[in-house]
Amino acid sequence: MSQVAFDTLKFTETLKQAGVPEQHAKAEAVAIQGALGEALNTQVATKEDIQKLKDDMQAFKDEVKADTQGLKGEIQHIKIEMQDIKGSQHSLKLMLNFIFAFSLAMLPILLGILWKLFIPAG
After folding, report:
1. Alpha-carbon span 1 to 41, nearest angstrom
2. From the DSSP assignment, how many helices (H) and strands (E) are in the chain?
3. pTM for the structure as a whole
4. 1 pLDDT higher than 50
5. In whole angstroms, what is the distance from residue 17 CA to residue 9 CA?
6. Contact call for residues 40 and 5 (beta carbons, < 8 A)
7. C-alpha to C-alpha distances, 76 to 13, 70, 79, 88, nearest whole angstrom
8. Is residue 39 a contact partner of residue 49, using CB atoms and an 8 Å limit?
9. Using an 8 Å Cβ cutoff, are 8 and 29 in contact?
């Protein structure tokens, strides 16, 4: 329970001077001090509460920073893989162009062979 800067003696004396019986004045002082203490416990953050919150926020910030660095590394890795894929794609295009050109070059020879096999000379 937090300590409240509340002068119960002064409060009691003030009530007694106003005509409140001493026992009643003391009881009110204790009751008010307790109520103020509970109010502070439930509504006001202590230095420890604030420090814990700061520590938690710093830990979260560090975690986010680490995650961000990890993501940056993964993005860089993906970029490198994409470059490799682009290089492979280019090689594949060259091979397909070569196969197509070779097939076109072989077509007259193949047609000539088929012509000689199936069309009688004559």
Report:
1. 6
2. 3, 0
3. 0.43
4. no
5. 12
6. no
7. 75, 10, 5, 19
8. no
9. yes
Tell me the per-residue pLDDT of 56-99, one tens digit each, with 9 for 90 and over: 999 999 999 999 999 999 999 999 999 999 999 999 999 999 99
- How far is the C-alpha of 49 from the C-alpha of 53, rounded, in Å? 6
Pull the structure tokens for residue 113. 């062979």
Side-chain half-sphere exposure of 76, counting CA atoms within 13 A:
6
Q: Is the pLDDT of residue 2 over 60?
A: no
Residues 11, 32 contacting (CB under 8 angstroms): yes
Q: In whole angstroms, what is the distance from residue 48 CA to residue 45 CA?
A: 8
- The pLDDT assigned to 104 comes to 93
Residue matched to tokens 């814990």 = 52
Whether the CB-CB separation of 2 and 38 falls below 8 Å is answered with no
Surface-to-core class of residue 29, CB atoms within 10 Å of its CB (0-12 exposed, 13-18 middle, 19+ buried): buried
Q: Are 32 and 6 in contact (CB under 8 A)?
A: yes
